[in-house]
Design goal:
Structural class: alpha/beta
Strand order of the largest sheet: 6-5-3-4-7-8
């Protein structure tokens, strides 16, 4: 389910010649940010011509931005106390795991390593920071809608592999 994000409102003004003009103005939105950090995992980009084709690791972190037009009765955009399920999912996906692209030609090798208990394999459509951000977004967006009764929505997810590099997904 796609979230409707009200970043702009549209007004129509009829001029003297009865032509319409459009005025775009920002809407007021509360933004709440949650950071989940320190998920050590390994990955590889098998198509990369350089060193990223080799299995290597980072301690990934995720920054999630949530939006809402009105706060909860407690004054929250989202209640972080209800994030245990989300944190558990992130840990299952990214804590001490080996992330491999679904189309990696060595996928069977990694599946064998997983079966032998050598790696904790997670197969993603693509393990780049940008695609991992989208993968997390696609899981969290319906979750936050359900858990807030549609009051809050997910604006963006940033996936960071270190202090210098990250990817952001914002539909």
């Amino acid at each position: 389910m796609a979230a409707v994000i009200p970043f702009v409102s549209i007004q129509f003004k009829l001029g003297a010649n009865l032509g319409a003009s459009v005025i775009l103005r920002p809407m007021s939105v509360f933004v709440t940010q949650k950071i989940f950090s320190d998920f050590p995992c390994a990955h590889r980009q098998w198509r990369h011509a350089g060193h990223c084709k080799f299995v290597h690791g980072y301690s990934r972190s995720f920054t999630l931005d949530f939006g809402c037009e009105s706060l909860s009765p407690e004054g929250f955009g989202v209640d972080f106390g209800g994030f245990k399920e989300l944190k558990s999912w992130l840990e299952d996906q990214f804590d001490h795991t080996c992330l491999i692209n679904a189309d990696d030609p060595e996928l069977a090798t990694f599946e064998d390593l997983h079966e032998r208990g050598i790696v904790k394999l997670r197969v993603l459509p693509n393990v780049s920071m940008e695609n991992t951000a989208k993968y997390v977004f696609d899981h969290v967006a319906p979750w936050i809608q359900e858990n807030t009764g549609g009051r809050a929505w997910l604006i963006s997810v940033e996936c960071r592999e270190n202090q210098k590099n990250s990817g952001l997904y914002r539909p």
